[in-house]
Amino acid sequence: xxxxxxxAKRLLATIPVMGVVAVVxxxxxxxxxxxxxxxxxxxVASPEDVKRIRIALGLNQPIHTQFVIWIGxxxxxxxxxxxxxxxxxxxxxxxxLEPTLALATTTxxxxxxxxxxxxVLAAWWQGTWVxxxxxxxxxxxxxxxxxxxxxxxxxxxxxxxxxxxxxxYVSVSQGLGPFLHRLILPTLTLSVLYIALIARITRAxxxxxxxxxxxxxxxxxxxxxxxxxxxxxxxxxxxxxxTVIGLGIALLIGGVVVxxxxxxxxxxxxxxxxxxxxxDYPIIQGLxxxxxxxxxxxxxxxxxxxxxxxxRIRY
Length: 315
Description:
The protein is mainly alpha-helical. Helix content is 78%, strand content 0%.
């Protein structure tokens, strides 16, 4: 019952959080310089044409009136209609959702599978060349921007070696092979920063656990190294590792925007860039709200998994 009460409490706490996000996003976009009506009208439009478009879009109304109308639509599940394409925002998000989910899923799986063993090995062989190599990779991963890695991969594997395609997306419904073939370079590009973060935290957490008395006791009893690392060290260091995986979702969301632009993937990241350039308020607001909601819910799931990883934690 305590766990259910905790979940209900956290879900209720997301309401004011999302409310603050909605207010900030709405005011930030409305008060920023630029006029979407002028963008929609074109360079040769007259002031009267721009004025008519502003009236049609409701941009001539006071900001508080626009906000009340927008909130009312949100409660009905309506994210609005794109100013540029005149298509419902919900429909546009549904059309672009699959590439983003595919890229995020492959990136998370690949990063966790690679980073956790690297961090464990670096902690076990502290001070050796393995440890120094993992730490050097972490520094490089944090230092090199995502778009730089993307262009390096394109130049190396797509242009010079011709092993992989430069850009584009193939749905999983058209075959698993072509689907993964198109996602290899974007996944490698986006996962570097994620691997660097998880590997560094894993090393620090496992290194701290390896200094505990029960580890030395297990070693004295003759427990094999593999069992010692997995059953004793990694299991007791899992909570901070899972925490950083959840916090890294924020980095992943930002990286998706850049990666999809570099590799021309028709996902939510590319949609975000196009909407920002066109000052399409409804799309930007809808995407930020969805990203914020996903991030909040993922952190709730991670908090709940703490009880599975560490029985001492109770809510």
